[in-house]
Amino acid sequence: MIHELRIERLIDAPVATVWQAWTEHFAEWFVPRPWTVEVVEQDLRTGGRSAMVMRGPEGESNPSEGVFLEVVPGRRIVSTDAFRADWEPQEPFMVRIDEFADAEGKTRYTAIARHWTVEARDQHAAMGFEAGWNAATDQLEEVVRRIAAEPSVV
């Protein structure tokens, strides 16, 4: 049985723009404000390291490290915190799947959190998954709109 939480959003921009916002502007949208994220490393390739520190307004600090399991440019990013770099196992919380699909010039964006147990899923839900991931996706859309409005350089 899959223990997952998910959000889906139709974003009014082509996949290439949403992909660019997700990959090149990660720190601008990944955590809901007033939280911030310090990107230590995002080696966006299969087997690459993902390391960051999420910081809260009261001085909270939440480091997170994992690896990318699959990266298909413009389509899919799969990551997990079950491993550190060099495939060093660590206590897992989830597998994250971000999918980008063309929907007649717009992007069907899906973000999925898959957990090892129902307890971990329920803990994530109680932590505010729905509100937090939706707020982050709102911020992703803000970045998408800004990129789309920027004059193209020829």
Largest β-sheet summary: 7 strands, antiparallel
Give me the secondary-structure category: alpha+beta
Q: Which ranges are low-confidence, i.e. pLDDT below 50, for 5 or more consecutive residues?
A: none
CA(first)-CA(last) distance: 50 Å
Neighbour order of strands in the largest sheet:
1-9-8-5-4-3-2
The secondary-structure element order is EHHEEEEEEEEHH
Q: What is the helix fraction of residues, given as a range?
A: 25-40%
Fraction of residues in β-strands: 35-45%
Rg (CA only)? 15 Å
Number of helices: 4
Overall 3D shape: globular
Number of strands: 9
Overall pLDDT, averaged?
Answer: 95
Description:
The chain contains four helices and nine strands, in the order βααββββββββαα. The longest helix has 21 residues, at 129-149. Strands 1-9-8-5-4-3-2 form a seven-stranded antiparallel β-sheet. A two-stranded antiparallel sheet has the order 6-7. The mean pLDDT is 95. The chain is of the alpha+beta class.
Features of the shown structure:
154 residues; alpha+beta; seven-stranded antiparallel sheet; two-stranded antiparallel sheet; 9 strands; 41% strand
SSE order and pairing:
Layout: E1 3-11, H1 15-24, H2 26-29, E2 36-42, E3 49-55, E4 61-72, E5 76-80, E6 83-84, E7 88-89, E8 95-103, E9 106-115, H3 118-126, H4 129-149
Antiparallel strand pairs: 1-9, 2-3, 3-4, 4-5, 5-8, 6-7, 8-9
Helix pairs in contact: 1-4
